[in-house]
Amino acid sequence: MSDVQRSEPQQEPPGTLEAMRQTPDHGEDSYRGAGRLTGKAAIVTGGDSGIGRAVAIAFAREGADVLISYLSEHDDARDTAEHVEKAGRRAVLLDGDVAEPAVCQMVVDRAVEEFGRLDVLVNNAAYQMTHESVEEVTDDEWQHTFDVNITAMFRLVRAALPHLGEGASIINTSSINFDMPRPTLLPYATTKGAIANFTAGLAQMLGVRGIRVNGVAPGPIWTPLIPSTMPPDQVEKFGRNTPLGRAGQPKEVAPAYVLLASDEASYISGAIIPVTGGKPIL
């Protein structure tokens, strides 16, 4: 993959699939469902591309209807929705910045309106930028990173709770950065640590209601976020420092979300599942 990554064009954040030379594999041609989420209704934020897209496709092929929340990547989101519908499930698209409180409420309200229920909330939307020094990070960027990556999770959970019953599942996307923070991703890595703590605390708080809360901690996964937020030299080497020696594909992360969303994970709560290509998380 290194030769392709070397020639991968730089993009403006958050990036699009159309502009990528090496298109990530979201499981479009490979994921096979087994009815593990039959009858469930789910929200996936950041569902237009990357991990969110792979999760939306996998959920649909497992039998779930999916609301795909995304920022502004309309073409990518419509393509994701087509895959959901080809699986015989309903896809609802909703664009908007989850950094805005009203958008978080709108996401939940629309899902309940369209599906009549809510069983799974996947908090996946994220923002990151690369910086070589603290001085490069502005107050606005620091605040925006927190608003998108962690504050939106709190707002979405708060809005969703009146509609989540016993057996429901909340899944938060953390990162290997919560345990091994990359200094050039300081604001992002800091939020990922907060997400791990939020997940652990919320799991304890909601256990009495029978609602499970877990997280997934991906390592280096090849998505549009990489060539749009990292300099070319880092893109070229992306994922090489893992024991498996490569970046992961979104389709390789999605099964962790399927497990946590399914009834098979009925006694798993407060966990963070690492999908890191062999890098340990302690």
Structure notes:
The chain is an alpha/beta fold and 282 residues long. It has one domain: Rossmann fold (3-Layer(aba) Sandwich). The protein has nine helices and seven strands; from the N terminus they run αβαβαβαβαβαβαααβ. It has helices spanning 2-6, 50-61, 74-86, 101-115, 139-160, 186-206, 225-229, 232-237, 254-261; strands spanning 41-45, 65-70, 91-95, 120-123, 169-173, 212-218, 272-275. A seven-stranded parallel β-sheet has the order 3-2-1-4-5-6-7, sandwiched between helices. It is globular, with a radius of gyration of 17 Å. The two termini are 28 Å apart.
User: In percent, how much strand structure appears in the residues?
Assistant: 5-15%
Strand order of the largest sheet: 3-2-1-4-5-6-7
The secondary structure category is alpha/beta
Mean pLDDT: 92
Poorly predicted tracts of residues: none
CATH superfamily: NAD(P)-binding Rossmann-like Domain
Question: Nearest-angstrom radius of gyration?
Answer: 17 Å
Please write the CATH class name: Alpha Beta
Distance between the termini: 28 Å
Instruction: Report the oligomer.
Output: single chain
| Series of secondary-structure elements, N-terminal to C-terminal | HEHEHEHEHEHEHHHE
Sheet of most strands: 7 strands, parallel
Q: State the CATH topology.
A: Rossmann fold
Number of H- or I-type helical stretches:
9
The structural domain count equals 1
| Secondary structure: helix percent | 25-40%
Total strands: 7
CATH architecture: 3-Layer(aba) Sandwich
